[in-house]
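Consider the following input, taken from an annotated entry for 6-carboxy-5,6,7,8-tetrahydropterin synthase (Pseudoalteromonas maricaloris).
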Amino acid sequence: MILFVDSLTVIDFSYLCPRRGAVGESWITDIVLHGELNEESMVLDFAKVKKQIKRIIDEKLDHKLAVPSALACNAKHSEGRFEFDMQFDGNHLAMNAPEEAVCVVEGDEINEVNAIAYLKSVIMPHMPENVKDLDITLRPEAATGFYYHYSHGLKKHDGNCQRIIHGHRSLIGVKLNDISMPRLQKQWADKWQDIYLGSEEDLIDPSLLQYVTAQDKDYAFAYTSSQGYFELAISKSRCDILPCDTTVECIADYLAGQIKLENPHDKVEVRAYEGVGKGAIAYA
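Applying the prediction step yields:
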């Protein structure tokens, strides 16, 4: 017997790529369970699928930085912390954070195949005996416009958004005088492709970093939140500094303000997404 749940959850996370650095991603997750009927004449109660399997995915991958094992072998693990320092495409990225902010996935890179194998390995041990196999599909949202991959950290958040490198794959909508503007959507999607969005409030002098070492032309970020102390050094060319927090509400408001500066006589509307099917709208 086969049981399926489409769009069980959306995994919002970032992953380390040896070519692109930190890449924000959002994957819609579909689940298929293969098994025998239990005493309730079910493979597994839908309520348990939605709660138990989603909880495992949330704990193991969602809102984390996924690191391929090929890169993790050069990382430092000590006293419950994870640290790496890497070069990519002529740029620099280094982070030190609590281990719970990181997920190591077997392979040379993070892709759907490796991520599915990892998730299956952590979910199956929690399944009842009548569940014999599990299929997982990870898929991006169907592209209906221009989108960008971004990473960020929200130190004021009391949940997992506080992790300094996690991210999203997000659509962007821009209207001037109620007319959609694909040109402006593409302009900002290109500008923020694979970007790290940092808050000006979290910038520190690179000499104050306690764990990682900043290079010339790096920004340095550090903050303490409820999950611990986080540090990041990243090439300025791969970062954009916002004069506000980087919540989706603030991102939408920031974009509306920037576009208004270039179009002072027009009514500006920005629809900023945070992953799939959620976001904020701002006007200027």
